[in-house]
Design brief:
41% of the residues lie in helices and 26% in strands. The radius of gyration is 22 Å and the shape is elongated. The protein is an alpha+beta fold and 272 residues long.
Amino acid sequence: MNESLVKYLAGLLDADGSLSFNFKCDYARPDRHFIGLALHLTSSDAIDRHGFVQSLPSITGFGSVSRYGKQSQFAVWNVSKRSDLEMLLPRIIKHMVIKAQHWQWLLDYWRTHRGLDYSERTVSEDERNALSMVCKQSRKTRVGPLKPKNHPTWAWLAGYLDGDGCYSYRSNVANTGYRQWTMNVSACAHVNDICGLEFLQKAFGGLIVDHSQSEHVKIWKRSLGYQNRNFALNFLPKLVKHSRLKKHRIEQMIHHHKQRLSVPGVTAQATV
């Protein structure tokens, strides 16, 4: 994997990935459990139309893919092999913006408690339940990158927006008879993960607002309309080079702006 792909995956996993302990029963002692670690990334065929997640085992050399749902419309990339995790996670975590601290804690704990050959360390049922509670608390409190970051990398940003972002590109005919276009980019996050949205706002401006249907969700929104054409034509081409899931929509918005520039004398209603 080249670094651009690693950074893209870090962004996508910041949005849609999960890393958690899994517990395997010690059949010699049914009341004891070995501690494992597993990474999961899920996508739907409706979004991942070209099978990017399906291809991750061959692209990265790590893990496997399983499918579920009606007509198997969801693909899940699973990585749980010890050697795969040891090679993959350190490269991913250093580029993450939201889940890095929590994932690093999980990795460090797993390394400490797994034992040399998975046979030396086990936990009881009570210890397993207590550890699950500690993990939930860690996900809430250990939020942010391992080291402060000044600006998002374009590959990370493309991955994050491919997961939790939306490129809105819509039109309607106004009362004046002009066709109005609404173009913006947005991202949503749980309030516990608002550091990711604040990172985007610091780098690119825009607003962070409440979600209309959930008090626990915040939305970052930045206009890409005609009044912000220069920003859009600087911002979007840098993302389209890395995007895997929403590339077509980004290309449509770039084409729209360039098309308007190529037609002299064209007027249009400004949109936000």
